[in-house]
Design a protein that fits this description.
The chain is built from 21 helices and no strands. By secondary structure, the chain is mostly helical. It has one domain: Up-down Bundle (Sodium/glucose cotransporter). The longest helix has about 50 residues. The radius of gyration is 22 Å and the shape is globular. It starts with a helix and ends with a helix. Keywords: Cell membrane, Ion transport, Membrane, Sodium, Sodium transport, Symport, Transmembrane, Transmembrane helix, Transport.
Length: about 475
């Protein structure tokens, strides 16, 4: 336990020290939320790796590999990074050209007025809040395994640590620590993977002693189940605001593209390790163990405390960076898309900076509340991805490619899709919820746009080819 305490004090001391440094350095809202659009290649690459390696990777995906095998990688992790790469390859340059803060702001500059309110609310409360809850559950589990704390005690301490770091340092502190933490995360995953493989006799013995069911890229329930599962998680990554923030924060279009590709290729490769660990764990872990406990159990049982401490620090690094990215995402929605649009368009930079930090507190505390109700990390995360994807993916693609899409059509589609995906489980239809949701969203978007006219506030252009932000119009709207 002394090793763990020493490691944790050093780690959190370093994190809070960096945050304290940036507290005095950050002077504007732009610096706090988006790094003044000036972040370089290696920092963007590092923060992509760290943000993508949160509770889902270390805890959820080890557990998924333990329960379903390698098919979990192909129907969840790989498809997530394929869609992330599609976002970067197709849209990094045109999105960076817009020079925005949030996904919702793209809707505002395209349609005018308060069109960004719906995606802002969805992004802040349907995604950011539950995913912060996932990171808090992960951190409290680590404290429970290593220090013997009650889960609620761990949850309280985790909430305080995340609040302090994010309030003080904002996105600049998150990005600079992410760059360092990405190295810790990779080292930690490699150490644990090598240790687990050595424990089961090597990769050859693992494959020979494991049923093909757990080695196959297709899940035990068949190809259809694998594809439908992939559909429920993959498309969301086109509208994942954490990736958008990294695109916006890049110093130029080229950096947004090259760092985005590099970061996601690296994380797609290292994310196979958790599934390998999970499959190997089936050789020596009680098969009735809850899947969210497998990672911590394996680490604590196989490795001596000095080495296990490195793994747990890597896990805490992943969870910490995930939580700070997600609460900054939600806070930017509340500050930029809600407060500045709905309440105070003429707010000063100092006021926006204050509201940003207050929004971080709000989103983090709601996440802590959500953590009390999370019983399975993979299921909770998958639900959040599916709901956000169904609501936002087709409206986003329409903004990028379809000039005929209308403000009314987008608002009808987002509101209607949200209601549809929530009530669908109670309708009793035999179709997969994600498939039905995406089909409904696409049809509703096309029909409602064709049946309505462009609003006078719209910029009737595609974001793929044009810069939608009209500085003069924004200036007039705020006067």
């Amino acid at each position: 336990m002394n090793w763990y305490i020493t490691y944790f004090i050093l780690y959190f001391g370093m994190m809070l020290g960096v945050a304290w440094y940036y507290y005095y350095k950050i002077k504007t809202y732009e610096e706090y939320m988006i790094g003044s659009w000036s972040t370089g290649f290696w920092k963007i690459t590092g923060t992509i790796i760290s943000t993508n390696a949160g509770a889902a990777v270390f805890i959820g995906w080890v557990g998924l590999g333990f329960t379903v095998g390698f098919s979990g990688y192909f129907k969840f992790a790989l498809v997530a990074y394929i869609f992330s790469l599609l976002l970067v390859l197709l849209f990094a340059k045109p999105l960076r050209r817009q020079k925005l803060f949030t996904l919702a702001e793209l809707f505002t500059v395209r349609f005018g007025g308060r069109a960004g309110m719906v995606p802002s609310i969805i992004s802040a409360f349907v995604y950011s809040v539950p995913t912060i809850g996932l990171q808090l559950v992960g951190m409290s589990t680590v404290f429970n395994i290593t220090l013997g704390w009650e889960l609620n005690t761990g949850l309280f301490v985790s909430t305080i640590l995340i609040l302090l770091f994010t309030i003080l340092g904002g996105l600049p502190a998150t990005i600079i620590t992410d760059a360092v933490q990405s190295i810790i995360i990779i080292i930690g995953l490699v150490i644990l993977t090598v240790s687990v493989l050595a424990h089961v006799g090597g990769i050859g013995d693992l494959f020979s002693n494991t049923s093909f069911t757990y080695l196959s890229p297709i899940s035990p329930d068949g190809l259809t189940d694998t594809l439908l599962y992939a559909l429920s998680v993959g498309p969301f990554y086109l509208v994942w605001q954490s990736t958008w923030q990294r695109i916006f924060a890049a110093k130029d279009e080229r950096t947004a593209l090259t760092a985005g590709i590099t970061g996601h290729v690296i994380v797609a490769a290292i994310s196979f390790f958790p599934f390998l660990i999970g499959v190997a764990a089936r050789q020596f872990v009680d098969l009735n163990m809850e899947q969210d406990l497998v990672f911590s159990y394996v680490t604590n049982e196989l490795l001596p405390a000095p080495v296990a401490g490195i793994i747990f620090v890597a896990l805490l690094a992943a969870l910490m960076t995930g939580a700070t990215s997600f609460n900054l995402q939600g806070a930017s929605n509340l500050t930029r898309d809600f407060y500045q649009v709905m309440i105070q368009p003429k707010a000063t930079n100092a006021r926006l900076l204050l509201v940003s930090r207050l929004s971080v507190i709000c989103i983090t505390l709601l996440g802590a509340g959500a953590a009390l109700f999370i019983t399975n990390i993979n299921d909770a995360y998958r639900w959040a991805l599916m709901v956000n994807g169904v609501i936002l993916v087709f409206p986003f693609l329409a903004i990028m490619f379809w000039k005929r899409v209308t403000k009314a059509g987008v608002l009808i589609t987002m509101s209607g899709s949200f209601i549809f995906i929530l009530i669908y489980p109670y309708i009793g239809l035999p179709f997969d919820q994600a498939l039905a949701g995406y089909v409904f969203s696409l049809i509703l978007l096309i029909v409602s746009s064709l049946c309505t006219s462009h609003d006078k506030t719209e910029v009737v252009m595609t974001a793929m080819r044009h810069k939608l932000v009209n500085e003069e119009r924004h200036k007039k709207e705020q006067e």
